[in-house]
Sequence to fold (296 residues):
Amino acid sequence: MLLTLRFIGGLAGGGTMPVAMALIGDKFPPDQRQVAIARFLAATLIGQILASTLSGLLAETVGWRAFFYAGALTTAIAATGAAIVLREKTSSASARPSLAGAYGGYAHVFRNPKSFLCFGTVFLESIAIFAVTPYISEILESNGLGGPKEAGMVIAGIGIGGLVYSLAVTWLMRHLTRVSFMAWGGVIGGVSLVLCIILPSWGILATLFSLLGFGFLMIHNSVQTEVASLAPQARAAAFSVHAFSFFMGQALGPILFGYGLHHFGLSPTLLAHAILLTAVGLGAAALFARQSRELL
Fold:
């Protein structure tokens, strides 16, 4: 039952991010999109930080069902506010939604050769980064470093690192190109995962996860900016495939990590994901740079 309800919740909420990203792509010119997307991500990461922290506290104090109730209430408030504030005037000339129109939008997206690179990158980065998060509590407890509360703090580190990135992105853009963002993001994230093998304390792990979140956003934000330009006439379709690729990686990652954890141990599994993340960052940087040169 829990799995079914999670599926329904994902089905209902899955379109939120693509539509929001498409709106940003429509309303901001290309030279401002990366910063605008980063600011939007900052808001989502603040929510992630609060959710990760509060869920651990609620689970230990009033039970695990409490954060589902809190999530339902928060979702209802957000949906009501969005329906009121973001309401747009509909034009009589607007095309009605149809399957043919949706397929046409996706076909338009995939006519751009960069689409496969964008979606492949986000799929692999999601596997590399979010595979470990469901196992943080188990890892901490088995090593005597804490429980659900500490696990929530560690996972929140990803959001904190992303929030720091969103505040620093304007300064970083003065010194780095977009492909440099991807390369450095892969290196920073990979090194962070390797250092996690030491397992010194949950506080240091939270710091390393903050570095991981910073590196993740350097890659992810850069790819999102590329996605916004794949197909301006079908931007919502582009971001929906982007979100699908991300969530597929997020779903597959824990399965792969769990298999590695229970068959090979923690250190080799973390090392494998660190190598994957570094390779994704460096590989995406090289391939995006190559495609940009070919399109000139």
